[in-house]
Amino acid sequence: MKHRKIANTSVELTELGFGASGIGNLYRVTPPRDAHAAIEAAWDAGIRYFDTAPHYGLGLSEQRLGSALRDRPRDAYVVSSKVGRLLVPNEQPRGIDPEGFAVPDDLRRQWDFSRDGVLRSIEATLERTGLDRLDVVYLHDPDDHWRQAAVEAMPALADLRDQGVIGAIGAGMNQSAMLARFLNETAADLVMLAGRYTLLDQSALDDVLPAARKLGKSVVAVGVFNSGLLSRDLPAEGMKYDYQDAPPALVARARAIADVCTAHGTTLPAAAIAFPRTHPSIINVTLGVRNAEQVVRNVELYDQRIPEGLWDDLRARGLIRSDVSTVNDSGRSPQCP
To answer: Which of 52, 113, 197, 240 is the most buried (most CB within 10 A)?
Structure first.
């Protein structure tokens, strides 16, 4: 699997990444054997970038990921985690985590983008994972905390990076406008862009992607299926878009894109994974998984070669924006044979 370097750093990511929210029991229980098998399958497929966070299962994701990786050669893989949500004792537990993870709520999340909060969060993550370091650290969903995140948290991460403790730093969010601010106004090396550069939403072309291009910084794309609507060959009513039931108009548009994909000999999910990587600033697509079967499917989709004419056809039909560029720095689409 191809590796691409985070700009201006020594950290390299495989083009396909392992998103570890699912092994943190997102929405439902993932048995320990399934979580371990998913990581093993990813390793066997050549995936060497693994992304987690304290938020995912109140630390369960970090624990499981660290347990599966800690006996591997440390220089052979990259792990990212996040700061901004400290895990603290829950004085009023009610049984199950109220934020979508099927885990006991003996802990709760506490927003904290202070310097001390950043240091405490990283220390706790290292304890949970059992790893000796984190390669990449993101600010996690700082939407309502711009000032503290930009003035306290990012400088704290920059100090750790400059000391060689962390390889690269950034921010991850479901919006693109503030991510552009992090690129433009802080020491961030990269951003994790969730759902804003997909076959159904190219709004990142208005802010974060031009900023990354201008500044020579990098972008990791997540949420490329937009919560599921782009995950099947034929989208259906009742599927999710950005965590909600997809509006009928978006389902119809996804079906139209799927029809064009079929005409070009490929599938909607394969195109959804390939599309973000046509932008020169996007170096990785990370997909959430919870078992080995999902890993194998994702790798098969990643390996599919997308005919260059697909993007032209989608533009011509008005199904993606006309200003979408699908040619990289070498002058050709990276998904074309």
So the answer is: 52
Pairing of strands 218-222, 240-241: unpaired
pLDDT digits (tens, 9 = 90+) for 182-221: 999 999 999 999 999 999 999 999 999 999 999 999 999 9
pTM score of the predicted model:
0.96
Nearest of 234, 222, 238 to residue 289 by alpha carbon: 222
- Among residues 11, 62, 17, 12, the alpha carbon closest in space to that of 276 is found at 17
With CA atoms as reference, report the closest residue to 212 among 190, 193, 194.
Answer: 190
3-316 adopts what CATH topology?
TIM Barrel (3.20.20)
Q: Which residues are catalytic?
A: 56
264-301 CB burial, b ≥16 within 10 A, e <16: bebbbbbbbbbbbbbbbbbbbbbbbbbbbebbbebbeb
Q: What is the Cα–Cα distance from 6 to 218, expressed in whole angstroms?
A: 6
CB count within 10 Å of CB 100 equals 16
